[in-house]
Amino acid sequence: QSVLTQPPSVSAAPGQKVTISCSGSSSNIGDNYVSWYQQLPGTAPKLLIYDNNKRPSGIPDRFSGSKSGTSATLGITGLQTGDEADYYCGTWDTSLSAGVFGGGTKLTVL
Amino acid sequence: QVQLVESGGGVVQPGRSLRLSCAASGFTFTSYVMHWVRQAPGKGLEWVAVVYNAGNYKYYADSVKGRFTISRDNSENTLYLQMSSLRAEDTAVYYCARDRKIGYGPFDYWGQGTLVTVSS
Fold it and tell me: CA-based Rg of chain A, rounded to a whole angstrom?
């Protein structure tokens, strides 16, 4: 069981929008920044969003992040078949003194 | 360009030891905190350990505490993970990752990973 909770899967049609939720607690999401990672099949994870809502250079603005209290959300608009991947939220847990991830969400673009 | 290249994975028997390495290039290694993250086959990401710039501060996941040791050689731009008393549940792809900030993440660059299989 992961410290952060994500839905196992989400799906939407090409061109549509999807959101992925990440729920935690006061010692992790509530106390630290959230980041999001995209993992395409057979590859290493890639940073998509950091500091709750910032995008590294090269990440299109179709990807967005937000945080409220002990929950965070990743949004993806204008879905493309190339967006099919596993998405993970991550943060630091102040009480555990450890990094924590969500269990991952598999995005299917129908 | 930033590169992280892991090595040292393989098949090892339960109870034995293994040392992973991560060679870093393309950035000033001493300026960055470094992490190990693992992923069991078909499973999600699991944070393993972090070591701060000078190698003096280290933190571990409860699942590996007392068995794994993270270290770094700043003169060789290399990160290590010494794994001992290995268990079947340690079977995973191990990634090294660079911390973008001060040790709490995010992880802005990842290696390609090295597979560790613990099996008799």
Answer: 13
| Cα(A24)–Cα(A90) distance, integer angstroms | 10
Nearest CA of chain A to the CA of B31: how many Å? 19
B90: phi then psi, degrees, rounded to nearest 5: -85, -5
Average pLDDT across chain B, whole number: 96
Nearest one of B68, B96, B92 to B82, comparing CA atoms = B68
Cis-peptide, bond into residue A45, ω within 30° of zero = no
Distance from CA of A16 to the nearest CA of B (A): 26
Q: Which residues contact A46 (CB under 8 A, 6 or more apart)?
A: A37, A38, A39, A40, B110
Reference B24, options B111, B101, B104; nearest CA is B111
A72: closest CA of chain B, how far (Å): 15
Check CB contact under 8 Å for A90 and B45: yes
Q: Does A30 touch chain B (CB under 8 A)?
A: no
**What is the tens place of the pLDDT at every residue in A5-59?**
999 999 999 999 999 999 999 999 999 999 999 999 999 999 999 999 999 999 9
Q: Is B52 on the interface with A (CB under 8 A)?
A: no
